[in-house]
Write a structure and sequence with these properties.
Number of strands: 12
Bound molecules: nicotinamide-adenine-dinucleotide
CATH class of the domain at 4-178 and 217-239: Alpha Beta
Distance between the termini: 50 Å
CATH architecture of the domain at 4-178 and 217-239: 3-Layer(aba) Sandwich
Structural class: alpha/beta
CATH topology of the domain at 4-178 and 217-239: Rossmann fold
Number of helices: 11
Order of helices and strands: EHEEHEHHEHEEHEEHEEHEHHH
Shape: globular
Strand order of the largest sheet: 3-2-1-4-5-6-10
Length: 343
């Protein structure tokens, strides 16, 4: 019989890509998602009927425990989280609830099952920031700087403690910045695409010098599947791409692609507007991902320029979805940003 994988946050950006790939691989897939503003079952419309869905909140322990007892998962892959740094600065409480308490509930519920593996999806942001040199490996100290990254560090450490204390087969993954189709348009790449095609100013924090490592979402999921298949309980795996870019270079690349696919009167880059920097903005993240390559044979395959081209094309082809999400975001932007901040 096929193994049962329980995916939390499976209606989110990365979780839904995992669900699509897991269904293709023939796994029995069960999704738990509370369908927050960031969750959307439309991301799973192409595989409707091929997975089981529970509309549940990970912060509700009795509900989570009942689902675990009913489903009896072999594998848990835990994506459900509040995931946007800017929101964590404005509204931090939800981050501790979902990311810390939610994770604790899942780990507790897992203790009563016969799990083969619990993949705890952490992030590169737990390491804090780098200067222009060097990389974080899995033994680097955690120095998280935003309420989001602190909540993820707590999630990450809770997983470790359940391995050490209870022998639960927890494996931690720390991916870098993901991008690709279906990402909620409050994150950098879809925000830039939306603003550009709407003819609005494109906001760039500070001088756009901050550096991130960019991982195409289907590559990230392939890395996580490799961890499910071959990873060792108690271990941590960075999942990077080696594709580091300054934010301003990411924005310029998107503008160049749009100039080709949807030429306007002026180059899109003329819309770039530098705005007040995010408080506590980490300068650079960069991962040493040699462990997952060496031990599990995984290497991200999508070059940044190719992945961004596919992403821009996807948003142009799915403009109605993008517009619909932005309608909702407008209220949030209006509540939280002054017009001069142009968010
Ligand atoms: N996006 C990135 O670049 C990135 C990088 C590294 C790690 N991560 C981590 O990967 C995971 C997925 O990220 P994403 O970008 O897909 O996030 P997302 O915001 O797109 O999706 C999160 C999903 O979790 C659900 N959710 C949130 N709180 C919940 C709760 N309490 N109970 C049940 N469901 C809940 C939401 O409804 C949504 O469907 C997160 O844990 C995030 O911290 C993301």
């Amino acid at each position: 019989m096929a193994e049962t994988v329980l995916v939390t946050g499976g209606a989110g950006f990365i979780g839904s890509e995992f669900v699509r790939q897991a269904v293709i691989l023939g796994l029995r897939v069960v999704v738990i998602d509370k369908l927050s503003y960031a969750g959307d079952l439309e991301r799973l419309a192409s595989i409707k009927g091929k997975f089981t869905f529970y509309n549940a909140d990970t912060t509700d322990f009795q509900r989570i425990r009942a689902i675990f007892q009913e489903v009896k998962p072999d594998i848990v892959v835990h994506f459900a989280a509040e995931s946007h740094v800017d929101r964590s600065i404005l509204e931090p409480f939800a981050f501790i609830d979902s990311n810390v308490k939610g994770t604790l509930n899942l780990l507790e519920a897992s203790k009563e099952t016969n799990l083969k593996v619990f993949v705890n999806v952490s992030t590169d942001e737990v390491y804090g920031e780098l200067g222009s040199e060097g990389y974080f490996n899995e033994n680097s100290a955690m120095m998280p700087n935003s309420p989001y990254s602190v909540s993820k560090a707590a999630q990450d450490m809770l997983g470790r403690s359940y391995y050490r204390t209870y022998g639960l087969p927890v494996i931690t993954v720390r991916p870098c910045n993901n991008y690709g189709p279906w990402q909620y348009p409050e994150k950098l790449i879809p925000v830039v695409i939306y603003k550009a095609i709407s003819g609005d100013a494109i906001p760039v924090y500070g001088k756009g010098d901050n550096v991130r490592e960019w991982l195409y979402v289907s590559d990230c999921v392939e890395g996580i599947l490799k961890v499910v298949e071959k990873g060792k309980p108690g271990e941590i795996y960075n999942i990077g791409s080696g594709e580091e870019r300054k934010n301003i270079d990411v924005v310029s690349e998107i503008c160049r692609i749009l100039d080709r696919l949807l030429p306007g009167k002026k180059p899109y880059e003329s819309l770039v507007t530098f705005v007040k920097d995010r408080p506590g903005h980490d300068f650079r993240y960069g991962l040493d991902s040699s462990k997952i390559e060496r031990e599990l044979g995984f290497k991200a395959k999508t070059p940044f320029e190719e992945g961004v081209f596919r992403t821009v094309k996807w948003y142009l082809d799915n403009r109605a979805w993008l517009e619909n999400k932005v309608q909702f975001l407008r209220d949030f932007w209006a509540r939280n940003y002054k017009p001069s901040e142009n968010k």
